[in-house]
Fold each of these.
Amino acid sequence: MKVCIIGQGYIGLPTAALFCRNHCEVVGVDISEEMINNLNKGIIHIEEPGISEIIKKAVEHEVYTASLTPEKADAFIITVPTPYIAENYSCDLSYVITACESILPYLEKGNTVIIESTIAPMSTDETIKPIFENAGFTIGNDLFLVHCPERVLPGRIIDELIHNDRIIGGVTEECAKKACEVYGQFVEGDLMLTEAKTAELSKCMENTFRDVNIALANELAKICAEIGVNALDVIEMANKHPRVNLHSPGPGVGGHCLAIDPYFIYAKSPETAKIIKLARDTNNSMPEFVCMNVKKIIPRGKIAVLGVSYKGNTGDDRESPAYEIIAELSNDYEIAIHDPHIENSDFVSLDEATKDGDLILILCDHDEFKNLDYDLIVRNMKETIIFDTKNIIKEVPDEIKLYNYGNLYELN
Ligand code: SAJ
């Protein structure tokens, strides 16, 4: 089987890798010339275990080619971003539409087209299907169109792509059956056949579920800071109940999924999606909450910010709440940023970041921050205070004062 994948990002590239490993030929298409050149040399641009080795081998064996333009194939998979439109929170389908239009000259009767990008409910039927119909295809008859949302966790993408169950939302039943042949190449989880609109809303709801639960944890953290209770203890205790799973409070919700997908539902039913919107607002308020507490800890001085990725142990900083916090604090403090997972010439080593510092502010749960070099910190810093917004530091030497969401009420 030959597969053409439009978009070689966090989902498109790992998906390409798995098709290659399962003896398919893959053309990976992207608009970035630099990325394409690198991929054709086997050099990848994402930090994700397992992908680099597979792509290198696939390039050597000529089963993977990266290209700026699509090619004829049996199946076309669209994995391009879908941001939201700021004015009304609706799903910006422009990249998806452009990607669909770009494959039109290469499509043949019998091909399958799969949209993996997260899209708002009804997008496949109302916006994407007409693109192919207007080009002369009859969906379900000579072209098979489905929405099959990706549902993998960065850091575990290969494993989850293989083992997670997949929702295959066909425009017709025949479409869904055809797409099963494509995913059958490497997916070992169940392939669940349904309608496109059900697949679209299921995907948006998965991330909304998580966003709402994180908002609940964040609200709890704020309540506890007000009334003088240790929020982290509450979470630990409550979670001993067999049917309770309180999530973890943090500096806000980042990434390209949780911080965006709930808006797609809200935009469809703004009068009804009240909890969904309130959860977004609550999570969006966390950077301000962090800054407010920083100001209580130290009114001025130098802050060493540790971690700007939205997610621990990845170099992915999309929608990271860290940037909002840094921008706000830069008005009143000297800021030095250290993130061992992100290449940025403005970022510095832990040594440099903490030199003459007054506060360490942890905004991301990279493993490197779990056991910091406390000798270095005590030696370097003027004030040895840490504010850990991800609750990853369990114990510190006596000379260091640790704040986290368990004891912010001490600042009242
Ligand atoms: N976060 C918290 N508290 C928590 C859990 C997470 O503050 O208890 C924060 C994280 O720090 C991060 C953000 O939420 O900033 C999102 O992280 P995440 O690990 O929950 O989710 P993503 O965005 O990396 O991946 C999600 C996954 N969805 C679900 O778990 C329902 C993944 O399966 C999806 O494939 C992905 O979104 C996607 O692409 O939609």
Amino acid sequence: MTQPIAILGRGQLGWMLRRAGDRIGANVQLLDPQAPEQPAPDTLITVESEHWPDNEGTRALRQHPGWQNAKTLDTLPSRILQKTLLDELQLPTAPWCRPKVSDSAEDVHNTLGPDFLLKTDRGGYDGRGQLRVKAAENTALPGWKNEAIAESAIAFDTEVSLVGARGRDGQCVFYHLTENYHRQGVLTVSLNQPERFAALQPAAEAMLTKLMTHLDYVGVMAMECFLVGDQLLINELAPRVHNSGHWTQDGAAICQFELHLRALLGWPMPKPHERGTTAMVNLLGMEHQKEWLTVPGARLYWYNKVCQPGRKMGHINLQHPDPKVIAQWLRTLPLPKEYDASREWALERLTS
Ligand code: ATP
Ligand code: MG
């Protein structure tokens, strides 16, 4: 029997971690964040999300001898602490400040310019807990500004993310930079084209290595960046497997879920072999459709959740050595009208 791993969380990320564990003989158990059982003392405890409810059970887990990455999980879930750490390590990020109780929008505009975002310190995800504030629109700041950061809006060329892992011996491995398209702050499509950002890869790896090493982190971490010219600005860090790494399930011989478990268990972590261009489409706020399965290359992952507007219900990976074939599959994939811009964005890249 291998050393047990418990994941705090039973959402899709927990489920995909367990599924990856089943394949390689790792012993993975999922814990209900509302009332987690206390695992056996030799269990390694990791999280599917850096935000979890505060209750008796989760407080006890943090005292468990197997609780992993305490320093990281005490720091990154707070945008204030995360941004402070980036500044300390002199890693580039969007200019930011902490609005004071007495600050008006104009005060913040004076510091950050005519267009900024207010982001809650904790708990935001999928674009929630964010407010865009433009000088031209005379927006009043909401009551939660004291528990938020303000951040300049960046006129980025595109968004990329780096997913990598650090092992117990301090060695780090990475996938190629992935390009991401968001609709209203929520990821719709990720594209992995290994050569596309080859020139930025060393700088990106150096940034995430510095962070993971500083935090003495073990496991998979994702670094979301804005790309402005040839400059990477860190948008945010996720100390866990990440939506922009889902393509690795079909585009790499070791997917991000397996890599996270290998890192925690101290198992071998060679640089994952990648299969070439891979696309991932998030299925947001829609019911299951068997018609997706008419596309020969569509690999569907369905999360079996109750459908709500905008909710991540599943994803589809498309992988083929020839990007033109992926483009053809993507053209025929049944998707609602709201996906037109996301699909066009990906087709442009796959066919150029
Ligand atoms: P998730 O958990 O899905 O990654 P989130 O709620 O944590 O999202 P962010 O990653 O901070 O939120 O923002 C979501 C998206 O909103 C970004 O990927 C980007 O498209 C846009 N965005 C966020 N901050 C900025 C910024 N400073 N300038 C321009 N766009 C931004
Ligand atoms: Mg994000």
Amino acid sequence: MMNARFSRRSFARLLGLSASAASLPLHALGSAPPTGSDLAGGRFPEGFVWGSATASYQVEGAVREDGRGPSIWDTFSHMPGKTHNGDTGDIADDFYHRYLDDIALMKELGLKGFRFSISWSRIFPTGTGAANPKGFDFYDRMIDALLAAGIQPYCTLYHWDLPQALEDKGGWQNKDTAKAFGEYAGVVAKHLSDRAKQFMTVNELSSFVDIGYREGRHAPGLRLDRGRHAQVAHHAVLGHGLAVQAIRANAKPGTKIGLADNPAAICPVIETREHLEAASRAFREENAKFLTVIMEGKYTEQYLRGLGADAPKFTDEELKTIGSPLDFVGLNVYGPHWVRASSSPKGYEMVEWPASYPHMLSDWLHVGPESLYWVPKHTHTLWGVKEMYITENGCSASDVVNNQGQVLDTDRVMYLRNYLTQLHRAVSEGVPVKGYFLWSLLDNYEWADGYDRRFGITHVDFRTQKRTPKLSAEFYKAVIARNGLA
Ligand code: NOJ
């Protein structure tokens, strides 16, 4: 089990480095040596988990079946003007009914792992109270089918679909939601951990906290002031910590616990010493309210000072819970943030995007393969994390089905090839990334962007639900078959 409060200094001490050396970012000191010729030719370590990822509201549909209660995304997506084209997840990929066919697709690709999320309101229709057995039935059947296909289940407990009944009581503004999340996580882990051995508490803290409660572009669509928003962020990391403890207490032996976060993907603008140091510092500070407090069990001084009177209210006991030891860290990595050294008090600054900077179809998704090197690298060197997964990586593209019925998404293949090359660079330096989950298996409901932004390696015709593997699926299948790039 990894000690979440493994400081950089103690990590450096462990490596036998001097106190002054300990103040340098560890990557500047040279990391673990390359793991040998077995990684030559773009190969990944044996047993590397090649997977793909989805999330309940984005694929399942069947929103009113088998006793499922409404979630904040049902409410939000049905509000006029909130999503592209008024799209909702009512049907999505109809995965709830088609999961067997989709598992056959996964098997055909050679997937070793499948990351999915549990819809909280299928299990507890109003967030708490008595569990709904029919909610479990679906996940039981799905997990059994995955295992029968030789695919390991990786289970996320919260991918943004909070039961509406809890939002009605304040949602993540209310500390009771963090407690309810812990209880739900414990019940699910108790039920599923005889077969599912990897659990992730929350998915992308900044997405549901910042976009949902501060920017209002995602459910529940609130625009809270700075102080209330900081309190929501605190309740979210507290919920994570309570869930870690509840899973630990209830799961069968051998269960591994982590989260799937999307820390700001800070990359040095040029790989020279001064920018490397600035990037390492920036990674820790820019992620202070989520991954850093989880890894260190405390907020950074800079974060609290910056908020002044708006800083969240918390107790030492809560910080301890938030920093509960994890077995692995999952990282969702998409676009980079370029950082350079500066003489400002922070010692770094973010670099503005030039107008011509390339991005994928989603305009927020700037292309930066180096992010798939730097995010695990920082996480390893700052906190000594020993087991990591890339729990999401992928891109949107303007896919079209050609007159031969094919989708030749060469841009997505280009994106994946370059990102995986950088992941291989990290793994070759001894950064302990154990698996990679491509987002996404299927085109699906891309939240406020509705069905307009396709992230799948399998094309979905949303009128007929026909699935067509794209060129990128063929690419990924070849990567899996040879356990790496050519
Ligand atoms: C991250 C989120 O976890 C997922 O739900 C979303 O669809 C992808 N990013 C693409 O935006």
Amino acid sequence: MIVIGGTASNSIDDKVAKILGSRSSKVESKLFPDGESYIRIPIEVKGEEVVIIQSTYYPQDKHWMELFFMIETLKDLGAEKVISVIPYLGYARQNRRFKDGEALSLKTVLDLLYRSGSDELITVEPHDYDTVISFFKGKVKIVDPVPTLAKELKKITSNPFVIAPDKGALSRAERMAKELEAPFSFIEKERDRNTGEVRVKYSHISGVENKDVIIVDDIISTGGTMAQASRIAYEKGAKSVIASAAHVLLIGDAKDKLSSAGIREIIGTNTVIPPETVKVVDVSELIAVRI
Ligand code: R5P
């Protein structure tokens, strides 16, 4: 087996190769003067099982295209099997047509992934497990970072209470609550599909007085969802609020939004490269054991 790191592997490739004791290499890449991506696989892969590691965060389109180029090249060069490890699955949230006529982007990228030659997909906590499994025609393995995040959270909370900031995050919150042996509850939110703004539809939260509240989500993007949930937790009497997510993007003024909503700590993973102030747990080992 050979592990190859793409341009957005966040060093997960080095750690995974070390854990597996396998050979490893880095893809060669550059941009042509007109902005197109150049990709080269610098090693012999004929007859090999190849694990290619590439996260598909910003710039998502570039990282996805590079991945398609790498996979097809590997197969052209005679690789026996290609396993794509995509720690952050870009476009995971465009998994439904929320408005008529919208592109089903997740289906398109997963279709292209399969058609490029990827036999297997391993990804960390995608937005919705079911759509990933149904859109990718090969084998899918999903890595759950919750137990690892919970280990860190145990160190910084004493009386935890877990909140899902929307119904979609309920199963994550439930998994986290189980790990922390804590109660959990949820909020129902609505997002304006034109402005992107989030609004609380209904809060089911009670019993958070003097608790260390942990809001659990798959992703923190603009921070709107976390900030709303944090305000509600404080209104209901929470002692402190921590934001926990697999993928911490923090777009634009997200960090300020979170701190003005009283969030004392943000915890995420290395599926993306978050700002220094975020506490990051490494998912390399969790990925390696699934290969
Ligand atoms: C959506 O349902 C997701 O699970 C997240 O709650 C959402 O995408 C977070 O985005 P933002 O940080 O922009 O509110």
